[in-house]
Design goal:
Blueprint (H helix, E strand, L loop, with lengths): L1 H18 L2 H10 L6 H12 L4 E4 L6 H12 L3 E5 L6 H5 E6 L4 E6 L6 E5 L6 H13 L1 E4 L2 E4 L5 E6 L12 H4 L4 E4 L5 H13 L11 H13 L4 H15 L13 E3 L3 H17 L7 H12 L4 E2 L1 H5 L4 H11 L4
Parallel strand pairs: 1-8, 1-9, 2-5, 5-8
Antiparallel strand pairs: 3-4, 6-7, 10-11
Helix pairs in contact: 1-9, 3-11, 10-11, 11-12, 12-14
C-alpha cells in the first residue's frame, strides 16, 4: 500500500512539473514591465490557478493596474478596467437592455464584466449596490441582464483594488462580501534599488513589449491540474486546526485571543487556504503540499476573514498579529 502511494505521488509530481512549465515563462514576461513586486505577481498567479479573486490593498502608484493588464497580455486574454466612483450604477458594470427603434425591441449591451481579467479599481468608492453586482458575478460566474443569463468566459479573474489612505467618500466593503475574495494582498513600497529601475524605465519612456506566451487553453488545463496536487490528511488537519483556532482559540492554548476576535474564518477560509496551498505548490512545481506552502499563503487567505474586537483595536492588535500567534502555536505536521 505504501509503495503505490509513493508511485502515485511520483507520477503526480511528474505531471505537475510538466503542466507548470509555463509559470517561469509567464513570470519572466511579467518581469519585463513589473519591477519587484514578486509577492503580488505570485498572488495573481495563485488567484488565477485557484479560480479565485484578489483584493489588493496598497497606496497609489504601486503598479496594481499595470500588473493585471500585463498578465492579461502575457496570456492573450481579454482585459477590462472599471473605475469605481460614487455615481457608478450596476448597469455600468454588468450591462443593460437598450431599446432599438429600428427593431422595435430591446437589445442587450454587455458591460465590462464580460472579460477574462477584470480590474475593479478602487472598489470601495462605489456604493453597495454596485459592489454586490460585481460580487454576484464573481460568486456565480454568470450575469443576468433582463431575462437572459450569460455564463462568463473562463478563466475569469477579478482583481479589486482599494486605497487604504483615504476614508472620505468611500464605502467600505462589508465583511460578508470581502469573504468572497480568495486572497487579500497588502502591497508595500518597492525597495530602493527597484525604485531606481522604475524611475529609469519611466524616464526612458519605453518598456519592453509584453508578448502572449501562454494560451487560455494552457491556463484552463493548469486549473484542472492544480486539483490533482496531492494533499496529505496531516496537512488537511493542519489547515483545519489553523481555521478552528480563529473560532475557538481557547481550545488551542490561545485563550488570550478570545477577547480580541469577534468572529473567526468561515468554511470559505478552509477551502481557500487548501486551494491556495495547492496553487503555491504548483507554482513551486511540486506535486504535493508541504506545511511551508500553507504558511506562505495563510496571511493572504485569512487577513480579511478574522473580525477583531474594539478591545483589539484599542490595543493596536491587527488580524495579522492574530494569524502570527496562531501559526506559531499550532503544531506543524
Amino acid at each position: 500500500m505504501e509503495e503505490t502511494s509513493t508511485v502515485d505521488i511520483k507520477s503526480i509530481n511528474e505531471k505537475i512539473e510538466k503542466e507548470s512549465a509555463f509559470v517561469d515563462l509567464l513570470t519572466l514576461e511579467m518581469n519585463k514591465v513589473i519591477v519587484g513586486q514578486k509577492h503580488m505577481v505570485e498572488r495573481l498567479l495563485i488567484g488565477l490557478l485557484g479560480q479565485g479573486h484578489i483584493l489588493l490593498e496598497g497606496v497609489p502608484g504601486l503598479a496594481k493596474t499595470l500588473a493585471i493588464n500585463t498578465l492579461s497580455k502575457a496570456i492573450d486574454a481579454s482585459f477590462s478596467r472599471i473605475q469605481f466612483t460614487p455615481d457608478l450604477l450596476p448597469a455600468d458594470v454588468i450591462g443593460t437592455l437598450i431599446y432599438n427603434i429600428k427593431e422595435n425591441d430591446f437589445s442587450i449591451k454587455k458591460g465590462p464584466i464580460f472579460a477574462n481579467f477584470v480590474l475593479a479599481d478602487e472598489i470601495n468608492r462605489a456604493p453597495a449596490k454596485v459592489q454586490s453586482a460585481l460580487l454576484e458575478a464573481m460568486q456565480e460566474k454568470q450575469v443576468t441582464i433582463g431575462d437572459e443569463t450569460f455564463v462568463l468566459d473562463k478563466p475569469f479573474l477579478v482583481m479589486a483594488t482599494q486605497n487604504p489612505v483615504e476614508q472620505e467618500g468611500t464605502y467600505p466593503l462589508p465583511e460578508a462580501q470581502v469573504d468572497r475574495f480568495m486572497l487579500k494582498t497588502v502591497i508595500d513600497y518597492p525597495k530602493l534599488d527597484e525604485e531606481q529601475l522604475i524611475v529609469r524605465a519611466n524616464l526612458k519612456g519605453s518598456y519592453d513589449k509584453v508578448n502572449p506566451v501562454v494560451s487560455v487553453k494552457q491556463i484552463l488545463s493548469a486549473q484542472e491540474a492544480v486539483r490533482e496536487v496531492y494533499m496529505d490528511e496531516k496537512i488537511e488537519k493542519y489547515i483545519l486546526d489553523i481555521i478552528f483556532a480563529t473560532r475557538y482559540p481557547e481550545k488551542y492554548r490561545l485563550g488570550d485571543l478570545k477577547a480580541l476576535i469577534s468572529f473567526g474564518a468561515s468554511p470559505r477560509g478552509s477551502i481557500n487556504l487548501a486551494t491556495a496551498a495547492k496553487c503555491y505548490a504548483f507554482i513551486k512545481r511540486r506535486g504535493y503540499v508541504i506545511p511551508e506552502d500553507v504558511r506562505a499563503v495563510v496571511h493572504d487567505v485569512l487577513r480579511h476573514r478574522i473580525g477583531i474586537t474594539y478591545e483589539a483595536e484599542a490595543e493596536n492588535v491587527t488580524s495579522e498579529d492574530i494569524i502570527n500567534k496562531i501559526v506559531n502555536e499550532i503544531e506543524v505536521p
